[in-house]
Design brief:
Strand order of the largest sheet: 1-4-5-6-7-10-11-12
Helix content: 25-40%
Structural class: alpha/beta
Shape: globular
Strand content: 25-35%
Mean pLDDT: 92
Largest sheet: 8 strands, parallel, barrel
Order of helices and strands: EEEHEHHEHEHHEEEHEHEHEHH
Number of strands: 12
Length: about 240
């Protein structure tokens, strides 16, 4: 399993939101590249990056920060926020994204998303972002609630050449309350696409539990920035036989 430390970008700074609330923001650094170098030094192989501005507006305003991260570290970069059309996906890849996360845009135009996923050059380069409240998907920076069940959509992409499904329980995100293990396990059972858990990781035990239920990855955000998770220790432990 991979541990993916997170960098959430807003106005070029590294921030964290509580439950996706843009009014509940904490700024942790004004140098995303320096944070990325910390992740590399700790032994991470991936970084999960979210452009919060683009998730809200659709405008890829944090590309300079993404480019700076790309130049700073040789790690794999998974990037979400604002990937709403072919051009945006291409810009993110050109700027250094190894994998692009598509969430709201997939729900709003499923035919477009399916065509994009099935392109040969996109095999393994895209992830489906499923962000849920009480099992139902939310879109548009989590501001709009749908009645689509996350587990149903995960089942729908079974057999697709996706790089991963990123499953976020919004109620847990940024709250250090532990991931929703039951819902995540249900999602894993519904599909053959690798599932990465996001939202709520609060300590090393949470990470180990993600591994135990079959996650291919776990995203660590606030727990890293508050010191609740020692990233180097977590990377070492997760790699032990």
């Amino acid at each position: 399993m991979d541990i993916l430390p997170a960098i959430d970008l807003r106005g070029g700074k590294v921030v964290r939101l509580a439950m996706g609330d843009y009014d509940r923001q904490t700024v942790y650094s004004d140098d995303p590249a320096a944070v990325a170098r910390e992740f590399a030094a700790a032994g991470a192989k991936w970084i999960h990056i979210v452009d919060l501005d683009a998730a809200r507006s659709g405008e890829l305003t944090n590309l300079p920060a993404l480019a700076a991260i790309r130049a700073a570290v040789p790690l794999h970069l998974e990037v979400g926020g604002g990937a709403r059309n072919d051009a945006a996906v291409a810009r993110l890849i050109d700027c250094g994204a190894d994998r692009v996360v598509i969430g709201s845009a997939a729900l709003k135009d499923w035919a477009w998303f399916e065509r994009l996923v099935q392109r040969d050059q996109m095999s393994g380069r895209l992830a489906l972002g499923l962000d849920a409240r009480e099992g139902k998907l939310a879109v548009a920076g989590w501001r709009e609630q749908s009645q689509v069940a996350a587990v149903d959509l995960a089942a729908r992409v079974k057999g697709w050449p996706l790089g991963a499904i990123i499953y976020t329980d919004i109620a847990r995100d940024g709250m250090l309350s532990g991931p929703n293990f039951d819902a995540t396990a249900e999602l894993i059972a519904s599909t053959d696409v690798s599932v990465i858990a996001s939202g709520g990781v609060s300590n090393l035990q949470d990470i180990l539990q993600c591994q135990a239920i079959g996650c291919s990855g776990a995203i660590v955000g606030k727990a890293y920035y508050t010191g609740a998770v020692d990233l180097a220790e977590a990377c070492r432990r997760i790699g032990e036989p």
